[in-house]
Structure formats: C-alpha cells, structure tokens
Amino acid sequence: MGAMLSVQDLVVNYGSIRAIKGISFEVNQGEIVTLIGANGAGKTTTLHAISGLVKTKSGSVSFCDHDLLSTEPHKILGLGMAHVPEGRRVFSRMTVMENLQMGAYIRNDASGISEDYDMVFERLPRLKERRKQAAGTLSGGEQQMLAIGRALMGRPKMLLLDEPSMGLSPLLVGEIFKIISDVNESGVTVLLVEQNAKKALEIADRAYVLETGKIVMSGDTLELADNEEVRKAYLGG
Amino acid sequence: MGFISQVINGLGLGSIYALVALGYSMVYGIVQLINFAHGDIIMVGAYAMFLLLTLAGAPLWAAVLGSILFCVVAGVFIERVAYRRLINMKAPRISLLITAIGVSIFLQNLSQLLFTSSGRTIPSMFDLGTLEAGSLQVPSGSIINILTSVAMMVGLSFLVNKTKIGKAMRATSEDADAARLMGINTNHSIAFTFGLGSGLAAVGAVLYCNTYPMITPYMGGLLGLKAFVAAVLGGIGSIPGAMLGGYVLGVAESLTKGYISSSFTDAVVFGILILVLLVRPAGLLGRNVSEKV
Questions:
Q1: Where is the ABC transporter domain (chain A) (predicted)?
Q2: Helices marked H in chain B — which ranges?
Q3: Pairing mode of beta strands A58-63, A206-211
Q4: pLDDT tens for chain B, residues 1 to 293
Q5: How high is the pLDDT of residue B243?
Q6: Which of A129, A167, A183, B44 is most deeply buried (CB count within 10 A of its CB)?
Q7: Cα→Cα distances B20→A11, B84, B228, Å
Q8: In which region does residue A59 sit, left (phi positive, over 0), alpha (psi from -120 to 50) or beta (all else)?
Q9: CA nearest neighbour of B212 among B223, B226, B221, B201
C-alpha cells in the first residue's frame, strides 16, 4: 500500500493569481508530517484544497485510495480525514458539548460516541469543566483544544491541523504540541501546517518547506533543522 | 373595548406576524438572505387552503395539514431552483436579494393567472364566537392565534436546540465551511430551514384566513413586509427576537386602531421600524456582530 495521503502536482488559482504552483507531497500512515512556510506561502490554501473548501485547477489528491477532489467536502470526514481549520472556527454560540456533538455528527454509534466524549475529556480536562459554556467564551487555547477535540470526535484516521499554535502563549503552544504528539501516538496520522517551524520540526517526522506556492525543500526533520537555509529563514539563525 | 381586550387582540394579530417573521429570521440567519418571497408563501398557503376547502371539499384538518405541507414543499423547491446555485457559488448578497424579489413577483403573477386578481372568500374555519370572562370580551380567533404561536415557538425551540438537524442548522448558520468539515451537508440544512420557515408561514396563513377570510394574490405583500419589520425589530437572525417583534408590532397596531385611528396603523408600524433602526440597529434581541473582513 502506498502513502495514506498523496498530493500530486496540485495547482490552485485565486482568480488570476496562482496560489499553489504545482506541489506534490505524501503522508504515510502513522507519521506526523509538517508543512512549514511563511505567511502567504499557501499552506492554508493547500489544506483547503485537500478538504474541498477551495476549487483546484489541476492535480490530484488521494486519501486511502479515494480521489478527494471529486468528493464533496461533507463526505471527507466519513473517509477518515478530519480538518482543524485555521483560527479554530469553533461554533461560538454553541456550547462546548454541542461542538463535540457536531464533531460526531456523522456517527450513529451512541455508545462509541459517549466513550469518545470521555476520551476527549480525559485528554483535554479543561473542556470538561466548561462543557456547558458557549464556545465563544473560552480562551484561545481552550478554543484550540475544543477544535482538536471536536475533530477527534469523528474518529479520524488522519488529522489536518492548520496553525494550531496561532495566537497562543509559549506555554500553551507547548501544551497543544504535546496533545498533538499524544494523538499521533494513539494511532492518528497528522499533517501539521505551521508558521512556528521550530516547534513543528520538533514533533514531526518529516517536513516540507513551502515558499510562494512551491515546495522548495523536504526531508527528515532532523536534517532540515540542521540545514543552513532553513535555520536562517525559519529558525531565527 | 377595554385596554386588555385590545392588547389580547394585538397579541393575536402579532402571533401571525411572529410566525411569518420566524421564516425571515431563520433564513437570514443561515444564508444572510432577506427572502422577500417569504411573504408570498402566506398567499400560497391561503390559496392552498381555499382550493382544498372549496374545490376538493376536504375536511378542515386535512386542509390545514395539506396547506402546511404544500408550503413546506414550495419553500424547499424555491430554494432548490432559485437560490441554491447562488448560495453555493457564494454570490454577492445583492444577487440573492434581487432573485428573491423576482420569485415574489413570479408567485404573485402566477397566482393572478390561476385565480384572477379578484379576491376569494375562504369558508369560515374555527369560529367559537366571542369569549367572555367577566367584563372582558375577546374573539376566540385571537386566543387561538396566541396559543398556536406559543405552541409553535415551543416546538421550534426544541427542534433547534435539541435535535440533530436543529443543531446542524445552527452550526451551518454560524460557519458553513466548518459545518462541512464536520460532515454536515449544508445544502440539506439550508433546504430544511427554508421548508421549516415556509411551514411556519403556512400556519400563519391558516390563522390569518381564520380572522380575515378574504384572500388575494397580493395579500402577501403588506403582510410579509410587516412580518419582516417584526423580524428586524426583534433582531434579525434571532428566533425569540422574531416572536417578540411580532407581538410588539401586533399590540402597537391594535392599540393604534383602538385609541388613535385605524388609518394610522401602517404609519405606526413603520415608524417603530425607523425608531428601532435609529436607536438599536441590531434589534431588541439582536447581537451586535462586527462584519468579518
């Protein structure tokens, strides 16, 4: 069997602007792969293209041998891929519990769902205290945890994470990255998009560096972290 | 007629506005569209009642159910045919608005073609005469309206807050893309909202016909506009707001009729709208949300 997620020659246009200029990458089962790059490099657009939220110009995306580009966005979670979008995008007027229920929207196994609430609350105890609160009243870190918890409620095989560290204090960033590692160890494959390259390289197995819509470098995270250019551009020298 | 009877009559009339306002508000909440064809659904419901009662000779309960069902189907059909493509291509709101006005004109003219522009009379429905309690006298219609609207509101709250489809509706209205990522088919949530709003408008139509049995192809115009005012007054997008706005408007209208002059009612209704827009543009129960950039 090949890679779990395979993106080939993906091109995305925004009007006349070519945002993604033909990128290819793969994520194998069990890995954490990170896509790092500066603001505007096309990281979020890449994830949106995978999830069907933006239309692609050409190329292919296959996940567990399904062609994602011809799959409607709301059917992708059913194939086993959950997407935690940039900026959390929790349903702020709904309670924490209702947000988790939405994460399990496609499931019908009541007992499995209630086990997973326990699993999420065990992993993210702060959510348990706040389960009756409206999600909009949570702090940024708690909202990020909720967004991850909500995605886990779909029992995904693979998690797409878009800038989970955005706007969080260093302490919380550490906590969120710990959660991501734990989730990965429990068997969920992770594709992590990050501006915080240092942190992302620490937990990931492999990395791709995206610059203005192109992949300019890729490899094992240890090698990349030693690479002169990467150090200069993304790790602060 | 005493003050209390006036208020009760006002609440009775307001119940109709409230039921119709819910449709405006829910549809706006989910697709940010002021569905100007929504008022005409009242007319569709009224003519469905008329046909079922007179031509088909259906019993009253069947006519009521049939009319509600017909409006639900009409609402879903209109969304599918007129709005869905625009919604899915994220068309500018003005395109949706113009389409809604087009649908409204279409429905009015279709009805004129089928039934001529002269009015029709609906046979009397639930007439329990006038209810008396001591010196208080109120027509039974007002009480029926109030009870029905409250029952609908309770049912709707349950549906929206407790059921899976209701939660999917709320999720879609908050963030359609995030809802898609949860596996929610947002097209279904939106169609459901249109069907639900149209069904509630049909209930409003039944109550309206019970009180004012004269129906015309253009009856939805002013009635729809007032219900829209009620939705804005309460805070468009808010379900309790739509109910509150409807009641406030009905009472204001009834008191104006009773104490000033019936020719002033529309002036008062739209005067209230202007006042609210000046003082509290988000409406009585509306949220102040800043536009996302």
A1: 5-237
A2: 3-31, 38-50, 60-78, 84-88, 93-115, 140-162, 164-174, 176-181, 186-211, 219-234, 239-259, 265-279
A3: unpaired
A4: 688 889 999 999 999 999 999 999 999 999 999 999 999 999 999 999 999 999 888 899 999 999 999 999 999 999 999 999 999 988 999 999 999 999 999 999 999 999 998 889 888 777 777 777 777 788 888 999 999 999 999 999 999 999 999 999 999 999 999 999 999 999 999 999 999 999 999 999 999 998 888 999 999 999 999 999 999 999 998 999 999 999 999 999 999 999 999 899 999 999 999 998 899 888 888 876 554 44
A5: 95
A6: B44
A7: 47, 22, 8
A8: left
A9: B223
Domain of residue B173, residue span = 3-120+140-279
Query: What is the number of domains present in chain B?
Result: 1
The CA-atom distances, in angstroms, between B196 and each of A195, B72, B189 are: 44, 7, 10
- For range A51-79, the mean pLDDT: 95
Chain B contact present for A213, CB below 8 A: no
Report if residue B288 sits inside a domain: no
**Tokens 């969920």, residue located:** A188
Mutate to test the interface with B, among A91, A96, A98, A99 (most CBs of B within 10 A): A91
Determine, yes or no, domain membership for B290: no
Residue B289 lies in a domain: no
Angle between helical axes of B3-31 and B164-174 (0-180°, round to 10): 70
Please state, in angstroms and rounded to a whole number, the distance separating the CA atoms of residues B183 and A75: 6
Q: Is residue B191 part of a domain?
A: yes
B60 exposure class (CB count in 10 Å sphere: 0-12, 13-18, 19+): middle
pLDDT value for B290: 52
For residues B67 and B73, give the distance between their C-alpha atoms in angstroms, rounded to a whole number.
10
Contact A94 B184 (CB under 8 A): no
CATH number at residue B24: 1.10.3470
Chain A, residues 146-175, CB within 8 A of chain B, namely 150, 154
Three-state secondary structure along chain A? Answer: CCCCEEEEEEEEEECCEEEEEEEEEEECCCCEEEEECCCCCCHHHHHHHHCCCCCCCEEEEEECCEEHHHCCHHHHHHHCEEEECCCCCCCCCCEHHHHHHHHCCCCCCHHHHHHHHHHHHHHCHHHHHCCCCEHHHCCHHHHHHHHHHHHHCCCCCEEEEECCCCCCCHHHHHHHHHHHHHHHHCCCEEEEEECCHHHHHHHCCEEEEEECCEEEEEEEHHHHHHCHHHHHHHCCC
Interface test with B, best of A44, A45, A48, A74 (most B CBs within 10 A): A74
